[in-house]
Amino acid sequence: MPHVLLIEDDARIREIVERGLGSRGFVVTSAEDGPTGLDLAQKLEVDVVLLDLMLPGLSGLEVLEGIRLAKPRLPVVALTALDDTRSKVAGLDAGADDYITKPFSLEELTARVRARLRSREDAGALKAGPLTVDPVAHRAVLDGREVPLSARELALLAAFIRHNGQVLSRSQLLDMVWDLNFDPGSNVVEVYVAALRRKLGAGWIDTVRGMGYRFSAPVEAPADTGS
Questions:
Q1: Which of 109, 121, 167, 218 is the most buried (most CB within 10 A)?
Q2: Are 20 and 46 in contact (CB under 8 A)?
Q3: What does pTM read for this prediction?
Q4: What pLDDT, in 10s, does the model give residues 75-96?
């Protein structure tokens, strides 16, 4: 049975989630504050963490940082009453794999948890030339050197590698990577593409005018062997 760790200070939400997920075949362990939740996440063998971003003792982002240091592959779904885009992006960039906004239905929560479990099972290292990306471990390595990427930068890079050589539009990338209702005029994709270009170097991501972006490993020039 999948084991879920719920870190939530609202007793009513804890009870609803414990009963709801319990009746759907999950084992649920709960914590009511940040320090206890982080301690349990580090000690217990759990499959998914449901993490409230507003916690006493330690903030949800601080707990998330501690989880990522101890268990980089552990899926974390952020629970938040904050409905502004900035807060959601902050949670995702800090390393959350998904988010769900309160109030939420048990059906949606269950679907999100199961999606994280499937992603964990299906995840594997992605390769493109000298670049390797491990989405679950939140790690990118280029020519043997680790590239420091935020969680959202790494997710965008993984999406590009999965569609290597294909042209992806801004709206497609928003759906794949952010899954948020961004303002159509937002330049968030352009900002993150520019960040990837700075960190990977030139030649990895081409702009296709009027269509979007195409990712491909740079073509190395043949070695000059002389005459």
A1: 109
A2: no
A3: 0.59
A4: 899 988 766 667 777 777 788 8
Helices (H) and strands (E) in the chain, counts: 8, 12
pLDDT tens-digit series, residues 130-142: 999 987 777 899 9
Structure tokens at 170: 């801004």
Contact of 110 with 20, CB cutoff 8 Å? yes
